[in-house]
Amino acid sequence: MDISKQIKVTSVKGKTKKELEKELLEEGYCSYEWTDSPGAYYSPHHHDYDECICIINGTMTFIVDKNEYAISFGEKLYLPAFTIHESKNKEKEEVVYLVGEKK
Question: Which option is the CATH number for 3-102: 3.60.15.10, 3.40.50.300, 3.40.50.720, 2.60.120.10?
Fold first, then answer.
């Protein structure tokens, strides 16, 4: 099965950080805030749990099966467990996001 078809991006525009944290909790995720500087890069890896990324500021690019997803402020990315992915901050500003983990 093509894992990229399981990747989901949704809009969360207009929601505050507190609202996003509550939403993640209601969806069964534990979350924490993370910040990456320009040029930050995470080599291909996977997690044994579902992951959800909510961008609070900036843009982060995720690569799954050679498909790029540039996730920006107001967007949420869902990555199913065991999805091999990499990510990088290609921008000139830091990116701040909530990481949700559903174990």
Answer: 2.60.120.10
Q: Residue 81 carries which DSSP code? A: T
**Residue 21: strand, helix, or coil:** helix
How far apart CA 39 and CA 89 sit, in angstroms, is: 5
Please state the pTM of the whole predicted model.
Answer: 0.91
Helix (H, G, I), strand (E, B) or coil at 58: coil
The residues spanned by each domain of the chain are: 3-102
Write out pLDDT tens, residues 26-46.
999 999 999 999 999 999 999
Question: Are the C-beta atoms of 70 and 76 separated by less than 8 Å?
Answer: no
